[in-house]
Amino acid sequence: MSVPSALTAGLWARDESSPRTPTRRHYLMCPPEYFTVEYSINPWMDPDTPVDTDLAMAQWRSLKAAYERLGHTVEVVEPQPGLPDMVFSANSATVIDGRVLGARFRAAERAAEAEHFRRWFSARGYRELIMPSRINEAEGDFAWTGELLLAGSGFRTDPEAHAEAQEALGVPVISLQLTDPRYYHLDTALFVLETGPQPQIAYYPQAFSAGSLKVLERLFPGAVLGSAADAECLGLNGVSDGRHVVLPLEATDLAGQLEKRGYEPVLLDVSELRKSGGGPKCCTMEIHT
């Protein structure tokens, strides 16, 4: 797969002395009105553990309100009964430059979510809309840096879906292999702090294969590295606008690192949503236009 010439000329190494500049973002979310843990499709999910849907709704509203306070646009998809994980909207589409690549879920329990999101985009005039033929769990395994689409596989998204994404979205794709079942999606182990010609990321090194780790080290030598404690609270499931970084409340090690680099952490309680293996990013699809 092709790589921008910037990578062959040098490596992306951000000037840490330059100011952090937030950019307005466009997010798509779905309220957890029907949220519960009825089945187990990742190591976080335990159907025997009680779930407080009202608390999940309150935490979701706090997350949405935080985005709106920061000046971002938030649109909402109507939740559907019988789809308790629909709150994790990041898994349902990847949108870059107005092109939409839908999702195809590995677990039968989530399969119907893809069509609801496809209809939402279609009703709003998105004409370049493609549904994948390969298993593809969207922004769960795809992270857009503004230059590259980082693409995870190992537990959910098929490796072949990476080439399909490149064709559908017309952007270069870098494949990364996940090795720890707790970090079953790329967005549980990596997120983009800043997009653009000098992108910056944060990630948890132990979640990746040896080869993929070398790729990340080569592409992003100045990346923020999360600790085991950060990863265990899904701290790498963050959302950044280039300055403000929304994180789970417990991700204090990561928040401290980010503050030293000039970012402003926004710590929120997402503990109820974490019972299904989700955090801020899982609840947040970004529409890159």
Which helices and strands occur, and which strands form pairs?
Layout: H1 5-9, E1 26-29, H2 53-69, E2 73-76, E3 93-96, E4 99-102, H3 113-123, E5 129-130, E6 142-144, E7 149-153, H4 160-169, E8 173-177, E9 190-194, E10 200-203, H5 210-219, E11 224-225, H6 228-232, E12 239-240, E13 244-248, H7 252-260, E14 264-268, E15 285-288
Parallel strand pairs: 1-2, 3-15, 4-5, 7-8, 10-11, 13-14
Antiparallel strand pairs: 1-15, 3-4, 6-7, 9-10, 12-13
Explain this structure to me?
The protein has one domain (23-288): L-arginine/glycine Amidinotransferase, Chain A (5-stranded Propeller), CATH 3.75.10.10. Mean pLDDT is 94; it is low at 1-13. With 289 residues, the protein is of the alpha/beta class. It has helices at 5-9, 53-69, 113-123, 160-169, 210-219, 228-232, 252-260; strands at 26-29, 73-76, 93-96, 99-102, 129-130, 142-144, 149-153, 173-177, 190-194, 200-203, 224-225, 239-240, 244-248, 264-268, 285-288. Strands 2-1-15-3-4-5 form a six-stranded mixed β-sheet, with helices on both faces. The two termini are 23 Å apart. The chain is globular, with a radius of gyration of 17 Å. It has seven helices and 15 strands. This is N-dimethylarginine dimethylaminohydrolase. GO terms for molecular function: hydrolase activity.
